[in-house]
Amino acid sequence: MAFANYINNTRGDRARLQGQFQENEHRNWFEYFERNTIDRESFAPDYLHRIFVTDDGDTRIGMIKKTVAYVVTDIDMQGNLVVEKWKLNKNNLYSA
Length: 96
Prior knowledge:
The protein is mainly beta.
């Protein structure tokens, strides 16, 4: 399980958490937020989210859909993204 090391607040000093999902295979929970424009323009623009993968705040980029998450786990020797497809058991969006 990996949750963000902060909560949403009204100050807006951190990226607003969009939701959490439970992946199907191991039933682990992950929180995620939308990547900012500068982050997306600099690397892998098609992957709109950052997913917390440790409770220390480490993230991976990915694309969260309703029933599946595509998570970038590595870059191969040719510079291509290595992407894992995780089936989701639940995907809970946070309210604004």
